[in-house]
């Protein structure tokens, strides 16, 4: 009986040659496509003439770089659980909105607190991340303030998933997009959206500190107490207060005392080896009942200590930025201000604070915090947040490089 062998497919020499030629052609084509694409982007950047398309989902006209159909995002998939998604939908751009491709994101305590304690997460999956710097990738039809390719920074509001900074492309209202001040590196601009903006608005909007007039110490004997002088927010607050004419006293560890002194604190109380009462007494002795403004950047316990340290006679404005329970007894002469950074996004008039901050940065009057840069993009964010949680960065700001 004749045995029938399955026929082997025969691939002759010439066939391999054909396959190799085809592969070469495909490779050449995709390289030239890539080149064409980068030439196109470069061309758009140079001419600054946006292409205009219509975004069907929002039915508005947008000017855009070549942006992908999907993007990568670090999402909070379930309570307490992050996941990297490679197919996360691209955010759509409304007529007065801007899409930014993130180059750097700043990490903040709120990022891990909201996930660990499950707040500020309207639904799952959700994207967190409050501040970033990058390049304008699309603009809505009514936007005239920026064009494609401009380098910018922004500060975002958690309620819009498109504005979560732990994704490749972020969409925000145009008034919340700011140019990177001269002399500020793009990676450092990623820390302006939370710490710098919070310090600016807390002082100028809520605590009634005047904008800088150029004459230091115009408020004479009055003091601002910053409990947590080395926190990134405290570093900005110290400098802005000094430039605005207010004398600053801070509470720090011995290790960060010189940092606050360099930034302009008139007196630094070193807390190491002292009881809480001793720290409070030292503040009261130095300021002689003249602390009329205070910020707490540490927590409920130090918020109470700050209340013990401020003036007992004069009116006091106090901003507990790191939580103070509603049950805390507050002296009658103290007004407690609830700092709501969402107001920057919800109320356009608050742009004046970023303008004022921008002027100080443009003039090189504010020293930026030392950065601790982390590579690895979205994959490195969780590790960075763990570092932040340990709380031993000694005044360094964690920034993740996205690309
Ligand atoms: N919108 C808002 O309401 C808002 C905005 C920004 C920040 N915040 C809150 O403000 C707080 C600070 O944020 P951040 O990012 O600026 O902080 P950060 O840079 O992470 O602060 C870390 C620093 O805190 C200092 N610290 C720790 N315990 C202290 C204590 N008992 N007394 C004095 N200093 C102490 C440590 O420096 P030493 O070595 O000097 O102790 C440490 O280097 C956080 O709770 C954050 O959630 C709120």
Automatic annotation (TrEMBL):
<dbReference type="InterPro" id="IPR020843">
    <property type="entry name" value="ER"/>
</dbReference>
<dbReference type="InterPro" id="IPR013149">
    <property type="entry name" value="ADH-like_C"/>
</dbReference>
<comment type="similarity">
    <text>Belongs to the zinc-containing alcohol dehydrogenase family.</text>
</comment>
<dbReference type="InterPro" id="IPR047122">
    <property type="entry name" value="Trans-enoyl_RdTase-like"/>
</dbReference>
<dbReference type="InterPro" id="IPR013154">
    <property type="entry name" value="ADH-like_N"/>
</dbReference>
<keyword id="KW-0560">Oxidoreductase</keyword>
<dbReference type="Pfam" id="PF08240">
    <property type="entry name" value="ADH_N"/>
</dbReference>
<dbReference type="InterPro" id="IPR011032">
    <property type="entry name" value="GroES-like_sf"/>
</dbReference>
<protein>
    <recommendedName>
        <fullName>Enoyl reductase (ER) domain-containing protein</fullName>
    </recommendedName>
</protein>
<dbReference type="GO" id="GO:0016651">
    <property type="term" value="F:oxidoreductase activity, acting on NAD(P)H"/>
</dbReference>
<dbReference type="InterPro" id="IPR036291">
    <property type="entry name" value="NAD(P)-bd_dom_sf"/>
</dbReference>
<feature type="domain" description="Enoyl reductase (ER)">
    <location>
        <begin position="69"/>
        <end position="399"/>
    </location>
</feature>
<dbReference type="Pfam" id="PF00107">
    <property type="entry name" value="ADH_zinc_N"/>
</dbReference>
